[in-house]
Every structure is written in C-alpha cells, then in structure tokens.
Amino acid sequence: MRYELFIALRHIIARKRQTILSVAAIGIAVMILMVSQAFMARFTKELYDKTVNNLPHVVILPREEDEYIHLYKNIVDMINDIDGVVASSPYLIGEASFNFRDNTKNAVLKGIIPCRKTM
Length: 119
Prior knowledge:
Elements: H1 3-14, H2 16-51, H3 72-80, E1 91-100, E2 103-112
Antiparallel strand pairs: 1-2
C-alpha cells in the first residue's frame, strides 16, 4: 500500500463525522450545480426560441438619406419570386411617446400589413 493512501485512509477512519459531512457537502454542491446548469440550459433554449426564431433572416433597409423604401411593393414581389423564400412582409418601425396626465412613456412601434404577415 502506498504511503499517501495509508495516511488518507487513516484520516478517513479516524474522523468519520468530518468525512461524512465533507462528502455530503460535496454531494449537495454538485447537485446544486447540476440543477442550476439545467435551468440555464432551458432558459437559453427559451431565449433562443423567442428571439432568434422570431427574427427575420434578411432585412432590407432604406438608404441612409431616405426614411422609408419607395415602391416597396415591387421589392416585396421580387423577393417573393426568389426560390426558397417562404414568406415576406413589409413593416414600418417608428418611435412614439405617450402622455397621460403626468405619465410619459416611450415606445417603439412596429406596423405591419396583417394580410401579408404569414409564417
């Protein structure tokens, strides 16, 4: 028997209560770590599903000097004619400020054409 193993076994046998408490503490710590990792994995999957899967794969923006795309219906028709395109929908985004008595709230509004919104 190796000398280090002999000393380790001697301490374990001599200090049974301390050994049991140490093993229990390590077991509880590992359990907490596994549970927290499971929660984080589920949270990451939900976050991914709610953000990435709901975002468009391609966004076409107007030029920097323009506020919106002129003749967007022609562009939407050209995009729909491309092979592999499942759906396309134009939308307009703008900032808004709402006031009611002393309350003021800011928001970003996204306007869509409901009949064209298909997924």
